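Good morning C.,

I know you're traveling, so I'll keep this short. The sequence:
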Amino acid sequence: MSVSRRTLAAAAFVALVLPLSACGSGGDDGGSGDASGKVEGDITFQTWNLRANFKSYFDGVIADFEKQYPGTHVKWIDQPAEGYADKISADAAGGTLPDVVNVSPDLVAPLAKAGLALDLDKAAAKYRKEYLPGAWASHRIPGMTGTYAFPWYLNTGPLFYNKSLFKKAGLDPDSPPKTYDDLFADALTMAHKSDGKVATLANVPTIEDFGRYGVELMNKEGTAFTFNDAKGVQLLSKYKELYDAKALDPQALTATPESSGRKFLTEAVAMNPGSALDLDNFKKQAPNLYKNIGITDQITSTGHVNMYVMGVMVNSRTKRTPAAVAFAHYVTDAEHQMSFAKKVAIFPSTAGSLEDPYFTKEDGTDETRVRIAAAKSLKNAVNYTPVLFSDQMKTALRNEVAKALQGKESPKAALDNAVKACNTLLQQQG
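The tokens, ready to paste straight into the viewer:
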């Protein structure tokens, strides 16, 4: 996958229901799941659109691994971002799944259910303490025991806000909203003072917003979605109020990350999520905005921001389990995660890495300020997107949210319908 802001976010959102049986991969029954043997033999390693920008990095990692473990050979396969989930599905069904695979939690879930993802709590438990607890837990599947991928890199992002627009609305430009209640109050003020010309937000609420608001998204067994509770209805009702007051951009119903970014760039919207990668764009394309840029944490009423996480899964049917586990760990160990993080705006999932001066020491630049703030928030961040929340479910929720905002359904009816649709899709997954 590409490591731009948009696709880092999208990577965590890509989901699909794989048409799998437990037919397996690798031809026959493959490896035993025992990673304790000699690290040797040929394995394949698949990444997600990383070759174009990071070929020399991965060539180096592979060469160092093969030097450390004589007798091993790693064949690197890189797939394009578009259609990656479909490619995994086809490989899994056809028995050609690589030995080590770059996945996000939602992609590993159907593979684990089909018996194709190695349980690392059994095969690699000795490595668990090397990773942040929240990151290790991100590749667990509700209703199953075990962890099904090594956590790799993390990402989160701050909210950018336009201090000039806050000031014009009579709001304190140095005290941006922190909680959803703060956000709703400021957004209504902004819309009122600008006669509806300036919206505060350009996006409708997603499943992550419900999570950050404190809504219980699923039951504890992972068998049903529950975001239509009173708190969920309350959140959507507030967004309906914003939409009616033009505090939520009228085009939010069809917004994309790019279109939201353009709204913020042209100062039609006062707040937008982003990353350090955006700051250089602001400097070049909107110097007036850059001069008035404010940087704050994600809005959350739980005290925990949302994080996106990538993982590295081992195919349970590999014939080279020791080598595959060793390589998956090697790619995701602290040394290599730190090295990768210094090449691109991502964050390591390894314990202690976020204490490195690179993530703690100010140097006066906005880029470093964003990196330090994000690293600090990641220490207790949560991956709010349920592992079992598929792309079809996201579409179902978005469609029902749109109906509620347009007044075609009540917020309660819209969320009841969304939960019903998502639970139907969930049963089909099982």
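Safe travels,
E.
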